[in-house]
UniProtKB/TrEMBL annotation:
It comes from the Bacteria. Keywords: Membrane, Transmembrane, Transmembrane helix. This is MptD family putative ECF transporter S component. The chain crosses the membrane at residues 15-35, 41-61, 119-139, 159-187. It holds the Pfam family Trep_Strep. The lineage of its organism: Bacteria, Bacillati, Bacillota, Clostridia, Eubacteriales.
Amino acid sequence: MSGSNSRRGMGGRDVITVGIFSAIYFAINFAFMLLGGLHPLLWILMPGFIALFTGIPHLMMCAKVQKVGSVLLMGLITGLIYFVTGQFTPVILVSFVIACGLGELVRGCTHYTSIRGNLVSFVLFSLGMVGSPLPIWLMREDFLRQITEQGMPADYVNTLAALSSSSMLVVLFLAPVVGAIIGGFIARAMFRKHFEKAGLV
């Protein structure tokens, strides 16, 4: 696909394609979000697990839609679904906008046809999910009170409070980076022929 096609922006078919892969991404995402309810540590590590298992749908979307806005749209669909259903605070929208914006920038700088560029873009995109647990650190007391009022068991809340240390904040950001790198290389290995056919080299 030529660079001019990339700059032309997405058409209706492109939006549908992004929507399909966004639905797959969200399904995987939601499954791990539910697992995060079992233990606070699983919730903090959730962005990493999601990144590990979503490399395939994300990079397939990148291969099929080599146009500006596709990564941002995918992230906003996920963030908006969570926000409008009351699952998360507005922090997740902000984190997705920043992460996807950086991902779009990398794709644009690498002309949408670099597998390395798309892998870096996926790593940045995956950081968007840190907006789910991040309020524990940004608005600790209010957030813990909120989930308590929503019926979260006291043991879960107390464990979460104990885990929300500075070192665990570093883990929160490192987990999706490591997960995305591994997940991205798995996707690349599985779909190498498809990526080559699409011009992602």
